[in-house]
Amino acid sequence: MKRILIVDDHQLMRDAYKHAMMTLGSYEFGEAGTYQEANALMAEHPWDIVILDVTIPGRNGLDFLAEIKAQPKSPTVLVCSGHDESVYGVRAFKAGAAGYVCKTAGTGEFLKAVKEILIGQNYISPSLAQNLAAFVRSDFQEQPHTTLSEREFQVLRKLINGDPIKEIAAQLNLSSKTVSTYRVRLMEKLRVKSLPELVQYCIQHGLMEKAG
């Protein structure tokens, strides 16, 4: 029997995922509402599939995804989030996700993604596929934030969450000077001159972490 771990900080969403997947067959489920709970469950049991939200208490979901995929015999991960998939979808795949489903999608699309993953396939939603196709055709207008490296994106998320420079440095194992350099570089790339402008840019482009 497949073991599926659901990591989402909303009980309602965890219940909805379980109810939907039970229509596909019998599975053994585990639930976690925080990074710490998920980490404990993953250390306790092996899992076949992880349903993962981008925003979870204790750790950014994409960072946790990278941790999961760095493990030997890592489970397959389906990211389900309220974040704009044009922003986070590609980054999720780069971090090792097998699929990305936006929470605004219907149950049918979620189940389609689960079915694909259960047979060892990846799942790319129609809307994300359109964005990728447009990019390949070169008629996709590249936004400044899409040029950020993964490290720059990590620093950006922490800055807009209000984390102090020293705290960011400790979390990412960097010096405060290096984080400050990233801050200046981010503002140059995103063409903003202050932290409030940086936050406003992130709000306008769907980069702010939000509940769900």
From TrEMBL:
Signal peptide: none annotated. Residues 3-118 form the Response regulatory domain. Residues 141-206 form the HTH luxR-type domain. Keywords: DNA-binding, Phosphoprotein, Transcription, Transcription regulation. It comes from the Bacteria. Transmembrane segments: none annotated. This is LuxR family two component transcriptional regulator. SUPFAM superfamilies: C-terminal effector domain of the bipartite response regulators, CheY-like. Pfam families: GerE, Response_reg. Gene3D superfamilies: 3.40.50.2300. GO terms for biological process: phosphorelay signal transduction system; regulation of DNA-templated transcription.
